[in-house]
Request: fold
Amino acid sequence: MFELQSFPDGTLPSSLYGGSHLLRLLVKLPEILPTQTLSAPSQDRLQAGLVDFIVFLEDNASHFFHVGMDE
Reply:
C-alpha cells in the first residue's frame, strides 16, 4: 500500500510544490511513458485516467493554480 511521505518536520510535499510542478510532470509524461513496459490495456487506462485528471484540474484551476504565487 502507498504510504504518504512527509518531510522530517511533518510538512507534506504538496504544501511546498504547487500546480506548476505538477504541470511540468504532466508535460514530461509523453517522454517518460514510452520507456515503461505497459500492456496496451494498461496504457489505455492510464491515458483515460490522465485525461480525467487534467479535466479535473481544469475545472478546479482556481483552487490549484494561483497566478504569481506558484513560480
